[in-house]
Each structure stands twice: as structure tokens, then as C-alpha cells.
Design a protein that fits this description.
- The chain is an alpha+beta fold.
- Strands 3-11-10-9-8-4-5 form a seven-stranded mixed sheet, with helices on both faces.
- It folds into three domains: 297 residues, Type I PLP-dependent aspartate aminotransferase-like (Major domain) (Aspartate Aminotransferase, domain 2), CATH 3.40.640.10; 96 residues, Alpha-Beta Complex (Aspartate Aminotransferase, domain 1), CATH 3.90.1150; 113 residues, no CATH class.
- Helices cover 31% and strands 18% of the residues.
- The chain is built from 13 helices and 22 strands.
Length: 517
């Protein structure tokens, strides 16, 4: 396969570092050498001599003086050689790549670092790249500096839709896409995993249109549907898959260690990028992982990740129960097939940025508005992403009660002027849509209020101090925040400011918007 057409102008201008190339050659030699090349610091002068890492089960990884010399010295840009060999073997065991003899591995500082290098290698300004949407916000941030045109690929409950992908590629016209980003297992943020049949369809389309697939699979082991899912790498008979793996979810996020597997010509260019930038990933991090794999062996490592998977499955189920308890009727979501996230649609709400950035933050809840996970971030998005990975069951329960507006039982006591009827149903108030007088959603038929309507509402509910409900009055009247308390009844003569003579009863305080924004 000719990879020349895929390389960016930056990649074509790259040249290997002469000193790093010497170091890589020296690292590959089995016999002792006399080094008179680049300026290696004298290892006898390093202040650190050895280290011991204690595992959770009490076992220890011992990095003795001889190994510590290698840890503290410059290393190969491809990665610590023993670790590279272990990763090659692990890849062969897990994925059985059809072209393994033509496949290389390079160790990186996490998968985002690797994906950024891939963008640098494959994308010129203005080049189209197909991206699965929604997608992790960090991927968008990693690719945007190279100036590509991000083209979203529509998805369903099994990932990218093949028929719609064909339509998207056909619309590229004279500037065809040459790269496609895919997160096939437990997609971040949706939790959707692609079936093997869907993977095969997508791969066949990539072959037809001569596309390189960037297979980003950090949640490969945190998959609740299958034992170990099929990968694009396993199907790659043509040498068009670059696979990105990470130890962030299985060993440590802070260790910042990942690796890329793919066709040797592409791995070589990425290695040159590493040579001319960071030199290599942290050798200390690489040695810790290498020694861990030495102690465990591949099967014990798999047993470890299987135990992680079960723990995350339990946490997912806790979040599911809390969502069913508190968000049913207010939101929609699919049970994630893996990963760490729920992708939740807030019904009746056009965009969730204010809900998350203001209301949720005010009660101590941190979540992500959905707009950060789509290509057109400026457009409204009714979704939020929440994670269940670290919160306790009690915190998850409190999170679900705080994150969305709560329903209440409301009755129109005074009919809106000009309206012939009133509402007496379970309703949820949602912020006023642009250009409309007001809006009620959920289990109620909307009866519009005239622009200058004057009415009051009798609330039939008791609310905790932290629960808030946003009410947006008709155009021309001031927006208010209703905060229910448990402080007893307020006088019915309590009126909200100036131009609206509405009175509120039953455990209600009125707060000016200036007090909360």
C-alpha cells in the first residue's frame, strides 16, 4: 500500500534526529558498546539509585541499581525495548492482526498525545477528516490546530451508520477524506459499542474510499457486552488501521502511557515526530508497566482488567437506578454498554450549558454540557455527559436530584388574560424558547400565556433547600428564580418585583436574577 498520499506536508519535511537515531541503534544492540556519540549524562552522578513500587496485593516491583541506570538515562524514541516487545506480543494475542509482520508499535505519552501526532502526520490545513459524532471533546481539541475540516459521521445505537457514512463521503466531492476517526468500544460520551458486523461494514467502506482508520479504543477492556470485542486492527487486511491503546484506564491515568500499533511506515513517521519533540515517553513510567507485566504475565493482566470491568459495571448500575428514580420523564438515555459515562438528553431543553455551568455548579455538581462533544459547538445541544467512575452511590443519587429541573404540581389560579382555559397537571418548567412567551413541557398540554399575562401559581410540593426551579415569565416581565425552602409559609402578600403583581404561596422564596448570575 502506498502511504505517500496520506502524509501531510509537515510529515514529509520531517527528518530523524541524528543523535536519537544513534541511541535507537545502540538500544537494539545486544553486545556492550563504547558510547562516544551524543551527550549522555554520566549515570554514576544521578542522585536516585533504586526504587520499590508496592502493589495493592502487597507484592513489590523492585527497580534495582542496574535497571535504574536505564530508567534515568535517555532511551529509545520507539519506547523502552522490553516494553515494546511485550506490547507487540500482547497485541498479537488480543487482536491477531492479519499483517502482524508488517506492523510496528511505538510508545507514547497517552493516547491523546498519539492522536495529536497522527493529526500532524496526516492532515494539511483544509483536509477533511471523518469523525464519529458525538466524540470526546479532547479529540476535537487535539485535531483543530492542524486546520482540518471536521466532518461528522452520523451514529445510531451501534455506532457509525454505514449508509449515512457513504452519503457523507460522496458529498466530499473533489476533496475526498483520507482519514476517519472512530471510537468503537464504549464510545465517549455515548457508551455505544460497535458490533463486529458493523465494524466490517465500516472497514469495507474505508477500503473502497482508500481511508486510514484512526481506531481510538481506550475503553476496550471496560466493555460490559462481550468478553473482548473485535477490533478494526483484527480485520485489517490492507494495512489501513492505526490503533491507539492506553494504560490510563487500566493501570494509571497519571502515568501518561499509551501505545500505537499500525503499518510500519506510519509508525516510523510518528517515531520521527517523537524524536524531534519529546524524545521519548517517560522511561520510569515505561519500566513500571514493563515490570508489572513481567510479574503478572498477560493472563494475570487480563484478570486485572476483568475485575476492573466488573467494578465499573456495578457503578454503571448504581447510576442507572438513580437515573430511573429521579430523571424518568425528565430525561432520556440509553444504558451504556461500557466505559464510564451516561449520555443524557434533557427533554424540553434546547441547550444544557446554563443548566450545567450555572445551576449544577451552584449546588456542587460538575458535569459536561453536550455541546463540547459535537463538531459544531456553537449550536445548542440538549445533552449532558455524566460519569459514574468515581462518585459514591450517595453522591450519584444526590447528583441526579440536583442536575435537572424538578417537576411540580401547578394549577393556574387566575386564567391568563385572553386565554379560555387553564392547566392543572404535572408539569416541568423549562426556560423560555427564543421568540415565544413561555413554555411548559412534560405530561401537560401547553396553553400559551399572552405576552402581558398576570397570574399566580399555587405550588403543591415541599422542596429541599438545594432544589431549584427556573421560571421564565412572559416577554416584558422580569425573569425570576424560584427556590423552594422548608421554612414554612410566606405571607400571600409577598409579591415579586414591581411590574408583576403575582403572589406565591407554599414554601417559596423569590430571588432576583442578579443574586444568582
Amino acid at each position: 500500500m502506498d502511504y505517500g498520499r496520506f502524509f501531510s506536508q509537515v510529515a514529509l519535511r520531517r527528518e530523524p534526529s541524528a543523535v536519537s537515531t544513534l541511541r535507537d541503534k545502540a538500544a537494539d544492540k545486544k553486545t556492550p558498546i563504547i558510547w562516544l556519540g551524543g551527550g549522555l549524562p554520566n549515570p554514576s552522578l544521578f542522585p536516585i539509585q533504586d526504587a520499590t513500587v508496592t502493589l495493592k496485593n502487597g507484592e513489590k516491583l523492585i527497580i534495582g541499581k542496574e535497571l535504574m541506570v536505564k530508567v534515568l538515562q535517555y532511551s529509545s524514541s520507539k519506547g523502552f525495548p522490553p516494553l515494546v516487545q511485550q506490547l507487540q506480543q500482547l497485541t498479537e494475542d488480543l487482536h491477531q492482526p492479519p499483517r502482524m509482520c508488517e506492523t510496528g508499535v511505538v510508545v507514547t505519552m497517552g493516547s491523546i498525545n498519539a492522536l495529536s501526532m497522527a493529526g500532524n502526520m496526516l492532515l494539511n490545513p483544509g483536509d477533511p477528516i471523518i469523525v464519529q459524532e458525538p466524540l470526546f471533546s479532547g479529540i476535537i481539541s487535539a485535531l483543530l490546530p492542524y486546520g482540518p475540516k471536521l466532518i461528522p459521521a452520523a451514529t445510531d445505537d451501534e455506532g457509525i451508520v454505514p449508509s449515512l457514512l457513504r452519503e457523507t463521503l460522496a458529498r466530499c466531492g473533489d476533496c475526498p477524506a483520507k482519514v476517519m476517526y472512530v471510537n468503537p468500544t464504549a464510545n465517549n460520551p455515548t457508551g455505544v459499542s460497535m458490533s463486529e458486523a458493523r465494524l466490517r461494514e465500516i472497514y469495507d467502506i474505508a477500503c473502497e474510499y482508500n481511508i486510514i482508520i484512526l481506531e481510538d479504543d481506550p475503553y476496550y477492556f471496560i466493555n460490559f457486552v462481550e468478553d473482548l470485542p473485535t477490533s478494526f486492527l483484527k480485520l485489517d487486511t490492507e494495512g489501513r488501521v492505526l490503533r491507539f491503546d492506553s494504560f490510563s484506564k487500566t493501570v494509571s491515568a497519571g502515568i501518561r502511557l499509551g501505545y500505537v500499533t499500525g503499518p510500519q511506515p506510519l509508525i516510523d513517521i510518528m517515531t520521527v515526530d517523537i524524536m524531534s519533540s519529546v524524545g521519548h515517553a517517560s522511561t520510569l513510567a515505561q519500566v513500571v508497566v514493563s515490570e508489572l507485566l513481567n510479574k503478572w504475565g498477560h493472563q494475570e493482566y487480563l484478570n486485572h482488567v476483568y475485575s476492573l470491568r466488573e467494578e465499573y459495571r456495578k457503578k454503571r448500575d448504581v447510576m442507572q437506578k438513580a437515573a430511573e428514580k429521579h430523571l424518568a420523564g425528565l430525561c432520556e438515555w440509553k444504558l451504556p454498554s461500557g466505559g464510564m459515562f451516561f449520555w443524557i438528553k434533557v427533554l424540553g431543553l434546547e441547550d444544557t450549558q446554563r443548566l450545567i455551568n450555572e445551576a449544577a455548579t451552584r449546588v456542587g455538581v460538575v458535569a459536561m454540557p453536550g455541546c463540547y462533544f459535537v463538531v459544531r459547538r456553537e449550536e445548542p445541544c440538549p445533552y449532558i455527559r455524566v460519569t459514574y467512575s468515581v462518585a459514591s452511590p450517595e453522591e450519584v443519587d444526590r447528583n441526579c436530584t440536583s442536575e435537572c429541573p424538578r417537576p411540580l404540581k401547578a394549577t393556574w389560579i387566575t386564567k391568563p388574560r385572553g386565554s379560555a382555559s387553564h392547566v392543572d397537571q404535572q408539569v416541568m418548567w423549562i426556560s423560555k424558547p427564543c421568540g415565544s412567551a413561555s413554555h411548559v413541557d412534560q405530561q401537560a398540554t401547553w396553553i400559551s400565556k399572552p405576552r402581558r399575562s398576570r397570574c399566580h401559581v399555587d405550588l403543591d410540593a415541599t422542596w429541599g433547600v438545594a432544589d431549584v426551579l427556573w421560571i421564565y415569565y412572559p416577554r416584558g416581565l422580569p425573569s425570576q428564580m424560584l427556590q423552594a425552602t422548608c421554612c414554612g409559609l410566606l405571607p400571600t402578600s409577598r409579591r415579586h418585583p414591581r411590574c408583576c403583581p403575582t403572589s406565591w404561596r407554599h414554601n417559596v422564596c423569590l430571588t432576583s436574577p442578579r443574586d444568582v448570575f
